[in-house]
Amino acid sequence: MVHGAALALLAMAFGVVAVRGVAEPGVALAFTVLIALGECVRITLPGDREQAPIGAAGALAYALLGPLRGLPTGHGVFQAAAVTGAGLLLALLPALLLPHGARRHRQAPWRDPVRLDGAARRLLGAGFAAAIFQPLYTSGAVDRFSADGPVYGVFLTLVAALAALCDASLAAVLRRARSGLRFPAALEDELRSLFGIGSAIAATGLLVSLAAGEVGLWALPLFCAPLLLAQVSFRRAAAVRATTGQTIASLARATEVAGYTPPGHARRVADTACAVGRELGLGTRELALLEYAALMHDVGQLSLVEPVPDGATALLPDEEQRRIARLGSEVIMRTGVPRKVAEQVARLADPWQGGPSGADGEVPLAARIIRVANAHDDLLTAARRRGVGEAVGRLEVLEALRLGRGRVYDARVVDALVRVRG
Prior knowledge:
hydrolase activity; membrane; HD/PDEase_dom; EC 3.1.4.-
């Protein structure tokens, strides 16, 4: 739906510009090049978010461009969308110019769903901002307040804020379609991200459009340079997160290599836990911490003299489960992983505190989810060892978890597991 709307807007914009001609072609070319360069230096943020800060800021600035060096502009809504689309298409040229052999080993940009999502968002966001601002500007309604006065700046800020909200909503729709994350949780994640790179993009686009009224096209490199430096900082933060992920993966593999857990157990538990977390409406950040904790939930087993058969801690006495969880938490606390992950692992074996009304008690939701996911994999592994068929084994495991529903396990979590794994 979002891609279709973007394609329709692009086709309509190109058609209108082809009929009417290009207004201020030099200005249009400068913004097209800026957007294309911004697309070529995209960054990937945590949660698999793709952003092109400079390209997005350039598109927003052109959509909100009023006077240029004191002279009015008249490019309008469709040319703003056409320039953004031309910049997006121009950024594809390096991939098209690659030798055929090199192209085979790299995914084509037009087949990359993350990149297509980002391009569609930026095109629709620029079109949305232009649709609000340009008609008011070209009709003279904005002339009632001075272009160099505070009211004009407040008006542009309001339009930029609405464009940012539009982009967040589109990103939430696309994330819902790609990952299955519930729309309210996806929207909450995207709105949180507005306080990071999103606010920097909106502020830069706003400043460029305002400064262009005084200094002309020199505003483009002058105000986009700080955003480029901010991109470097975001890249470094992403690299730190990648290092954290490698540390977690190593710890998760340690129990398997040492023979304490079956191969793939940590990954299966993490996948099940994340599926349940999405079903319960957790956001991207909560899901990331949940995955970390699920991958490392068995680290405490390394303290055992003798491995538990099949690593099935769910079959151990409650006190022994709690001891292993506490030891694992102490190990995790010394690895530089977010403290919340260690706290979740420490509470994995704590009894569920929910009362008759369904209150959650003090045990973190992530800990309750991992406990159910771990029991699910342990019991399923035990069923396979007994030679039980896959379908029958799954039914047995779900029935066993239902028996502990509301006593040993959180009823809400068990119900969510049944929906995603039943």
